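#struct-pred

JT: dropping the chains for the assembly here, can someone run the whole complex?
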Amino acid sequence: MPCDIVVCVKQVPHPDYLDKISLDPVKGTIDRGRVPAVINPGDRNALEEALRIRERFSGRVVVLTMGPPQARRALEEALAMDADAAIHLCDPAFAGADTLATAQALAYGICKLEHFDLVLCGNATIDSGTGQVALQLAEFLDLPCVTDAEELTFEDERSLLVKRMWERGYIRARIKLPAVIAVSNKINQPRLPTILGIMAATQKEIKNWNAADIDADASCVGLNGSPTQVYEVGEFHAARRGEILQGLPEEVVTLAIDRLVKLEML
Amino acid sequence: MNSEVKVESRVWVWVEHHDEELAKVSLGLLGKAHKLCQELGGGEVASVLVGADSQQLVAELIDYGSDKVYLADAPSLSLFETERCAHLMTKLIQSYQPEIVLWDATSLGRETAARVAAKLGTGLTAHCIDLYIEEVRGNYQLVAVVAGWGGNMILKNICPQRRPQMATVKPGIFPPLEPGKRNGEVIPVKVEGEASRLDIVEVVEKREEAVSLEEAEVVVAGGWGLSSLGGFQAVEELAQVLGGSVAGTRPAVDAGWIPAERMIGQSGKTVTPQLLVTLGVSGAAQFATAVLSSKLILAVDKNPQAPIFEMADIGIVGDLQDVLPLLINKLRAIKGEV
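RK: done, full complex below.
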């Protein structure tokens, strides 16, 4: 039996350049400068896992994103990695979404699909990193969900054993399809797009769906559907500068230890 | 105090516990809940305690500042079943309508919290590094402070319309109250037997370390600057002398010097030791936000311009190859004397 999989991806700033993001001092908004955008690293693990499941059971892998027009690049990259089709939820009405409104829009989009067995997501994004969207998506779709998945083992076509990490170790749990699973970045090593893949991707269709296409209730998506608001943004400054000791190593080490002793730290 | 603030406004804490022990992080949340109530001008702090044999933990929760404990002591209910926990918590919140609900941003806590937020259609700010009450546009709001964009940006979130206001908090950020004999009320909660769609087959705990990084009193953290020493050996030595735990920055993890479980940073662990010693750590924002609550920071780095010196209480500018052996030897001599 084929397994049709939806992979949710988000376009994020390249992780190596996060420190190049700054605050526009005039507008007070985040200035991404010329930081290149990529598929969120954890979402690439989700896509890789989907492609491996497809190799075993057949089925279609559809990549879904919500984002501004430039997020199309992320879908092109996913198609080059060998996804079958892509859907871009793109509408000014989706802008300004917090996790709840994002999950809601993704849920509307997924409900428009003819059929799916499994939704895979990355565990968290590197830009905001809440790790909430997969769970909230599952709530809106009324599906079982597990996050932090480090290993997926199919017992049969409809039942999965999931190794799910937590602070003190892991649990093994059984989950029946359809389900939403967020995977850890340790689950696999994502493939790189091949030249053939990149060429094939140009032949694949990227569907653009706006709010009307997915019958989204305008009060539930974007800024309107977001209960949380960013009320202030600032650059991080740690302000506790103490004493800086410079000089001969022997002397500064002795001084530092002296301070620690006086402060009863030893 | 503003007259608009309702005295009965309450702050709730979802309690995490394992192996018949309360998680230290949850006790810290109770401390913060108290502070928020004060800022709101009064009101009670309540804990929500769920799971088998949880009854015996009630007294400790009260001693650490719970005015009320909602207790769902049911052998069948485990914190791992976040779907059932969320169902129960949603109903409790709907019945009693707290203004603020706090959760530890642990693996299980954030799962339950995210589900409850979706069920209630309310806001949830994740991985907060600070919380306080402030008057925003004429109303008292919970301001939830998070480090975003790799820790470079500080974002302050509010949830102006919907209730409750909810936040998950980076574990270990807030200190607990001094425990004392306090009075509290226990409210038993009935657990209904609705089915879980996650069938838990086994729970495995890896007991690799006696003290977790989050709970360590002394932490010695190494960064990329250690490349001149070819790795972490000296860090481990210093940690041993100080009786502390070893940690590292992302570059140190990427270099393979230390396992990812020991990474401090925005995407790693948050530490709150009495003493943090950093060796060859430049102090990028993603590291800084995760060590803010350390009582004392001693930093060693050769670059006097490194941001770590902006946040260190004592900074030593120098080459690790010179400084570190001296530091280890002198500390060993002192520790040996004691």
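JT: nice. The radius of gyration of chain B is 22 Å. DSSP finds nine helices and 17 strands in chain B.
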